[in-house]
Amino acid sequence: MSISTSGLHHVTAIGGDPNRNVDFYLRTLGLRLVKTTVNFDDNGTYHLYYGDSSGKPGTLMTFFPWPDAPKGRIGTGQASTTAFSVPEASIGWWKQHLEETGVEVSRIRNSDNEDTLTFRDPDGLVLSLVAHPQGDPREPWDTALVPAQHAIRGLHSVTLSVTREDETAAMLTDDLGLRFLHQDGNRLRFEAGDGGAGALVDVLVTPNAPRGLTAAGTVHHVAWRVPDEQTQVSWREELVDKGVNVTSIMDRQYFRSIYFREPGGTLLEVATDTGGFDIDEPLLELGRALKLPPWLEPRREQIEAMLPVLDLPKENNPEVVS
């Protein structure tokens, strides 16, 4: 493959109650809601984007929260764990902070000498906070509840659960341009671009595990970065030429996307770095108002009537006077 990704762009999951989702990711994890919009394929649900102060690629976790969504099952054919990067000295602070909010936490140190906390969000989604030993220079979102010295820097890695690794590993290296780093038991690690936090994926091989069921508490898809639309067009053509079943390029308002599945079953996306979340509202006001793309704006009244009222904590826009 002549084109390679530089790392993770975002991870999208399915949630339940949107207000519970907002409260956890803003107040407990200290992320910023950088865009409140809707699922462009199902306008009756929100699409909520969380990240750093501006929602830069590589910091984003997004959700489709359906209030009455059935419970999913985490298993093979999915991204089974989403990990965020935090400062190495902050793991103790995070353990105390999470436990004080009623979150059950387990702590390990993995083969890469990364101190890791693993826990679940209110819908059962498996998350980790990882203290990457090489550090992470990305600037965090700073709030009174999660101060900058401890705050999440962005995505660290994702874990893809598969029943066999050979075809998945081949797609990661041959079609996405990742490099194989090492294997630790039934876990293989790959890295993209310059490596490090935000550019890692683990492949967990569990031949006898049940197949995942995509619903509340599970990841819907994992998105990888591409610098611009021209490169994305070339990349799509190369994937099609190799026989990969790829969607057409889709306008997601804040970036452009293509989608395809890796052989183990996980839905992957390639999303452009170009675009950004301040194209339709000021940086200081990100996430406050429901934003719709031009083709849905004529249906705003109908769409708003279908959506539950979202109670956005003041921590999301501390410099905006109401």
What are the SSEs and their pairings?
Blueprint: E1 8-15, H1 18-28, E2 32-39, E3 42-51, E4 60-65, E5 78-86, H2 91-100, E6 106-109, E7 115-120, E8 126-131, E9 154-162, H3 166-174, E10 179-184, E11 187-191, E12 200-205, E13 218-226, H4 229-241, E14 250-251, E15 256-261, E16 267-272, H5 300-306
Parallel strand pairs: 1-4, 5-8, 9-12, 13-16
Antiparallel strand pairs: 1-13, 2-3, 3-4, 5-9, 6-7, 7-8, 10-11, 11-12, 14-15, 15-16
Walk me through this protein's architecture.
This protein is an alpha+beta fold. The protein has one domain: 2,3-Dihydroxybiphenyl 1,2-Dioxygenase, domain 1 (Roll). The protein is 16% helix and 33% strand. The protein is built from five helices and 16 strands. The strands form two sheets. Strands 2-3-4-1-13-16-15-14 form an eight-stranded mixed beta sheet. Strand 14 and strand 15 form a beta hairpin. It is globular.
Q: Estimate the mean pLDDT confidence.
A: 95
CATH fold name, please? 2,3-Dihydroxybiphenyl 1,2-Dioxygenase, domain 1
Portion in strands: 25-35%
Please estimate the helix content. Answer: 10-25%
Number of spatially distinct domains: 1
- Strand line-up across the major sheet: 2-3-4-1-13-16-15-14
Please identify which CATH superfamily we are dealing with. 2,3-Dihydroxybiphenyl 1,2-Dioxygenase, domain 1
Can you count the helices?
5
User: What is the CATH class?
Assistant: Alpha Beta
How far apart are the first and last residues' alpha carbons, in Å?
A: 51 Å
Q: What is the helix/strand order? A: EHEEEEHEEEEHEEEEHEEEH
CATH architecture: Roll
**CA-atom Rg in angstroms:** 19 Å
Shape category: globular
Strand-pairing-aware structural class: alpha+beta
Give unreliable regions as ranges: none
Number of strands: 16
Largest sheet: 8 strands, mixed
